User: What shape does this take?
Amino acid sequence: MIRPGRDEDAEGFIRLIGDAWSEYPNCILDVDGELPELRTLATYFAGLGGTVWAAEEDGALVGMVATRPLNDDRAWEIAKMYVAKAHRGSGLAHALIGTAEGHAVAQGARRMILWTDTRFEAAHRFYEKRGYVRSGSIRILDDISKSLEFRYAKPAVGLVVDALDAAAAASAERRLADILVACVNGGASVSFLPPLSLEIAKAFWRGVSASVATGGTVLLVAWCDGQIAGTAQLVLAQQPNGPHRAEVAKVLVDPAYRRRGIARALMQRVEQTARGIGRKLLILDTWSDREAAVLYRALGWMEVGTVPGYAIEPDGSPVDTTFFWKRVA
Assistant: This one.
C-alpha cells in the first residue's frame, strides 16, 4: 500500500535509508548531524510545498519517495527514493516514482529533476529506464560520506525533442538500445537485421555516445509524457569540403509510441538543429516501400533516386533504397 507519509514514519524512513546506504562503502547516515529533517519528514516536505509517500506492507515501511517544487521554470524534484532490498524488482519502485511524478504533473510540473549519488549505479539504471538522463555538473556535498551526486532530468509532459551532450547520451544508451531492438525486430530499415540482440544494440549506442563526445554526431531524443520514445542523429561530415552538410541517420520511434507525431517532430528538430550549426545540406536514405519515405516527401525532402537491391531482407531478398536531400538554409 502506498500512502501519504507521516512524521510518525520517521523510524521506518531512517531504517530504509540507512539500510540502502549501508550497501555502499563509506556511505554513512548521520541523521542528527546532517539530515535532521528525517525526524519529521512529512512536515519538512509540506513546508516546501511538496509531499512524501510511504509504501507499507504488513505494518512495515518497505519504500518511500518525495517530491517538491523548485524555483526553476516549473520544475519539480524527486527526492528520498528508496525501496527495501527484498522488494526491488517487484514493480514497487516504479509505482512509487510514478505516484510522485503524477502528483508533480498534476501540480503543473513541466520538468522533473533528481540528484543521485555517483555510487548508486542500480539507481542510475532505474532512473534511466524511467526516461531520465544525466544533466549538468556533478554536485559535491560537504558531508561525512564525501558524496558526489549526478543530476538527472527529463521533460515531464507532452512531446519534447532535445539534443543530448555526451554525458546525457551515455546515460540514455540503455533506453535507446531497447528502442533500436524493438524497431529492428519490428522491420525497421536501419542497417541492422533481426533478430537484433540487446548487447549489439548497446554497443552501437556506445559508439554514438563517443561520437557525440568528439563532436562528430548530434544526438536528438524525443520524450513523450516523460519517457524517451524516439531518436534521430545528425552525422556531421568531417571532410574539408563538407562543413556545410550532414547525414540524418537512425530516425527511430518506439513502436509503442507510434502515431503520435514523434517522427515528424524529430525531423523538424533535425532541420532546426542543422540550421543552428551551419549545416545547410542534409541527406538521408530509407527503404523505398516504407512509411518513412512518405513522411520525408511530405516534409519537402527531394528524391535523388532509387538504388535497386541496395539492402537485403533477413531472408536475403533485395530491397530498393531511396536517397533524399534537403536544403535548410
Notes: DSSP finds ten helices and 15 strands in the chain. The chain has two domains: 2-155, 159-327.
